[in-house]
């Protein structure tokens, strides 16, 4: 009985330390800031997918207006022909997709760590729905961008396409594995 009492006291001490350490942090503020940052990144990715589609539509109709020129003035200022804008725009979209993936993986890691600390008595929000929505929305944008890349495969060239597809596969596989 004495051994049980000692172990109980130790575990209660650990619980108090964990609660004390995590109690002073305003988690709601940081969590809200992180959600807003991810939402902004996701909107930027969706906008990139629409820009790529508009640029591809502009390339198909040589007589029509080029919507990408108005949508991305920094590319227009470079004086590049519209055919060279497409790979640059796709590469930028892939970089943003990888950054969004890193945010999701970081949030998953935080959730796992909180789950571990819950074993020591820390507060743990078991609601996995926000994390699931993040993953689903990121995968949805992933498929939009992947579809755009596959549709623009002839404009991208033989050396850029395999590298892009490899990066896309790495994004999806790391999301699924974690």
Approximately how much beta-strand content do the residues carry? under 5%
Fraction of residues in helix: over 70%
User: What is Rg?
Assistant: 23 Å
Silhouette: elongated
> Mean pLDDT across all residues, rounded?
80
**H-E string:** HHHHHHHH
Largest β-sheet summary: none
Low-confidence runs:
64-81
| SS summary, helix count | 8
In total, the number of strands is 0
By secondary-structure content and strand pairing, the structural class works out as mainly alpha
| Domain count | 1
What gap, in angstroms, lies between the N and C termini? 42 Å
Structural features, described:
- This protein is mostly helical.
- The chain has one domain.
- Helices cover 83% and strands 0% of the residues.
- It has helices spanning 2-23, 27-60, 67-71, 73-77, 82-118, 129-151, 153-156, 160-177.
- α2 (27-60) packs parallel to α6 and α5 runs antiparallel to α6 (129-151).
- It starts with a helix and ends with a helix.
- Residues 64-81 have low confidence and may be disordered.
